[in-house]
Amino acid sequence: MSVGCTSGPATTTETETGTGTTMGTTSTVGETTTTSTTTGTSEPTTTGEPVTSTGPTVGTTEPPETTTTTTTTSTTTTETTDGGMPMPVACGGKIYQCGDAIDNDGDGAIDGGDKECTSPCDDSEGSLQTDLPGQNLDCKNDCYWDSDSGVGNDKCEYDLQCDPQSPGELIGCGFKQECEPDVPAQCLEVCSELVPNGCDCFGCCHVQTPNGTVDIFLGSAPDCSLTNLDACGTCTFQASCNNVCEPEKCELCFGEDELPEGCEEAGCDEGDVPCMVDMDGVSNCPEGFFCSTGCCQPIEPG
What does pTM read for this prediction? Predict the structure, then answer.
């Protein structure tokens, strides 16, 4: 952003006071206005002509009194990041929509600044679906946050057809019978650290609305977004593998962009760095990390 600086011509006004002349000079530079008023007193001349003085006259006047008034107008800008231009961020050596430094859906928000981007490894900036290869193509759900569609690396597994809320109905995975997710120790180790505040390991998230909290499955439909919750399927929040949001600890919950009242920075787990991200997707996280619900998280795969 460039800041303009405008310099206008100085204006001099002379006013006869009877015993002298008052000269005011006003100059404007940028947004600072300085007004100087100099009052001098001189003896009248015998010729009848007025005398104009811009300073003291030796032997005939006292030193002038000078009053300077400065008025400054400033604009306050709240910065949430270290600033800078949005830059592409790779995930596993590839550039996806949520890391390409482009406003793909035309909503004025880029990459991490767009609420529909769950990480730089998300390939859909306009939907909460990630559109990664293989994801949303069958009813078996693994860790939603690890940027792949298989259970091989995390061992997390949950069949969408087991959820009585039928979150997979819109993608051909409607409810059949209740069953529990498979959450071994490896699933908790790999997935739990990646889950945003207010979500479970399988992509079911609490979202605050004017009518209360709703649970939505992020992968339920191509049009599912925070601005179109009606397009999202509802889901059952899984207690066996999740990251419950705690606003009382200043945690920033999923889908929110304002910290809880009275909080100056986001509450994060020990070792995690609090962060904020602007609409251009620029955050204060170090290289190899991205800002997720107020805390810097590693990009997986890096």
Answer: 0.70
